[in-house]
Amino acid sequence: MGYKEEFIEIYQNNIKRNGAEELLEWLQKTDFFTAPASSKFHCACEQGLVMHSLSVYHTLMEKHFDSEKDSAESFAICALLHDLCKAQFYKVSTRNVKNDETGQWEKKPFYAVEDIFPYGHGEKSVFLIERFMRLKTSEAMAIRWHMGGFDDAARGGSFSISLAYEKYPLAVKLHLADLESTYLREKNTSVVNKL
User: Fold this and answer.
1) 195 pLDDT band (50/70/90 cuts)?
2) pLDDT, tens digit, 9 for 90 and up, residues 31-90
3) Which of 46, 96, 115, 150 has the lowest tally of Cβ within 10 angstroms?
């Protein structure tokens, strides 16, 4: 089973909310299933975004899911859709790189950011999801603050992230799963390849 098929299977088995099917249809019209997760860091390769989303889902479920306290639907929504903001965000471009062996300049492909809707990161994902289906407050907080201290608003000294983490354990769990996936589980997908 490929990444797209696994994503769709997990999505359809767990997310039953009004608007979920319409959101999935929209996703399939974007580059979500072929886009990278980053321009040069984790999963900076074709299908990197769906690979990362699945990695976060599996990490979140393995490490943090408590069947007595947590919702499988909420976990699937948060993990699979937390980086929805990266759909239609990257484009393949080229740059000149000097070949060390020949001394010649060569055109090499790379992922460039082309943000046509600059609405932030987590908040943009929340906005896009809610165009189709309503999020619970805990889900919106988790997706909004999944970047933790790497988020521009958090670096600016906002206390909102601390309050969100205090009130919504799902936000902490998603942040931890995203960190582990990015920095520990996806180490071998950090170079642009297969362009």
Assistant:
1) very low
2) 999 999 888 777 888 999 999 999 999 999 999 999 999 999 999 999 999 999 999 988
3) 96
CB of 147 closer than 8 Å to CB of 175: yes
Written as one letter, the residue type at 121 is H
Residue identified by tokens 């309503």 is 134
- Parse the chain into domains and list their residue ranges: 3-87+120-189
Instruction: Decide if 84 contacts 166 (C-beta within 8 A).
Output: no
Radius of gyration of the chain (CA): 17
DSSP string for the chain: --HHHHHHHHHHHH--STTHHHHHHHHHHTTTTTS-SSSSSTT-BTTHHHHHHHHHHHHHHHHH--TTT--HHHHHHHHHHTTGGGTTTEEEEEEEEE-TTT--EEEEEEEEE--SS---SHHHHHHHHHTTSPPPHHHHHHHHTTTGGGSHHHHTT-SHHHHHHHH-HHHHHHHHHHHHIIIIISGGG-S-B--
Category of 128 on φ-ψ map: left (φ > 0), alpha (ψ -120 to 50) or beta: alpha
